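Morning!

This is the sequence you dropped in the shared folder:
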Amino acid sequence: MGRSRSARVGPYLPGRPGSPDLGLPDQNSRSPGGPTAGCGFAFPPPTSLARRSRYGLGAARYGRLSAPQPAGPGLGNSRPGPGVAIAPGAARRLRRAGRGVGSAPGRPGGQRLGTVLGLDRLRLGPLLLALVLAALLTLPWLLVGALGDRFTSLQQALQALARALPEILLFWGLVYFLFRSTWVRLWPAVLSLLLSYGLFFVAAHLTSPIETALQDVLILLPLVPLLAELRARGSGIYPSLVLAWPAYAVPILFVDPRNMLPNNEPEPLHLAAYAGVAATALSLALFLWTERHLRRVLWQERPRPLLPGRFVAALGVVAALGVLLLWGTLYRQAGVPGFADDGLLIILREQADLSPAQQIAGRAARLQFVYRTLVETAERTQPPLRAELEQLGVRYRPYYLVNMIRVEGRRDLYGRFAGRPEVANVLVNPNVRRYPRHLSLTGLVGDVPAAETAPNLLAIHVDEAWVLGAWGQGIVVAGQDTGYDWTHPALQSRYRG
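The structure's back. Tokens below.
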């Protein structure tokens, strides 16, 4: 019995004009066992759940399915059941179709879990395309951002993967499979997926800080069209994960989270990078959509490819390596390569006892006693720790106002010094990132008009001192903080150390 494919899907009526040819004999069939006995389906392999359901419902309307028992090597049935008798394999397929779940190729059961989650295919072309797209979308952050502490960066990268993987599996695996099985065209499925992800996004950020929700909107939403294009090229979720992970992780890695706090001034170049990445993602999605449809039209006119498949694959590998090499070159030449590691503050348990200074009458003698006591305490208690740090090749700076040692960029030594009897506490000293480029909002908007003098300044008559020309000339202002930027133009020429 010959197999046939029919574009029309619907119920089968024997002898009815226009009914799909399912290989069923008509009433005049001379099959053994009677007109309806021994008939079998040449069932065309369905291509979607919707078409499977229609086959199943169409067959079930006009007869009860019964799996005949063949008496011989053919499809004949010596004991026909009531209704339409079909071949055993076709009966099982129709029963699965009625449930809306079709058989996986080469398997008698339903759809495999890997197929539903998009884990069944891994094609080289979409995977290389995802690598190129990830490099292009993360390129702006190399020019305006900088990495922080290496241990924190590794933790943030793993957290980004832990977030991207479940979302890709859920939405671009399971939910995409369900929507694509429901809708014939791609854009209703993507629109439905976007709406469902929007609801999920709102529910997930009901209790999140506003800066976190805003950052996720700027990063994740522009990726949806690109993820849809990658998924439409039939390679499972692997390219989607390759694109989504770096696109979500790199902005977090290259931007200090303190810049995203509401009371801090945002970096204008970071805001421009968010806008540039969103525009680039939408442009690339439109280009890939046009390329995919144009290639489909050309394929219909010329079924045979112009170039051999291996040549195209090698060309794709070379192009991807070229883009990644460009990414690394720009990072090294125009960015700030490396990490700005957090340091440590090792605070010693013994601090200088300055209480006898209250008994000294003269100011000069009192100051000399305080200075000598602070320095003597530091020089007496710090040498063992300094020698150990020098042996490890670690940069450090000793302090005596507070008896402590500042360690440069070796947060991994925290456990080495914490808990020692001579150490009171070990604190992590946050880094200060050096962005390759900086643009102040003040420079963009010009000079800000002077606001009214604050009431606390008026209480000490600062306005009267300003009228007399006293602005603090010749006065040294001292501050104790590890966060001063001594390279600031307003401080560098007057910095006393």
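Headline: The radius of gyration is 36 Å.

More detail when I'm at my desk.
O.
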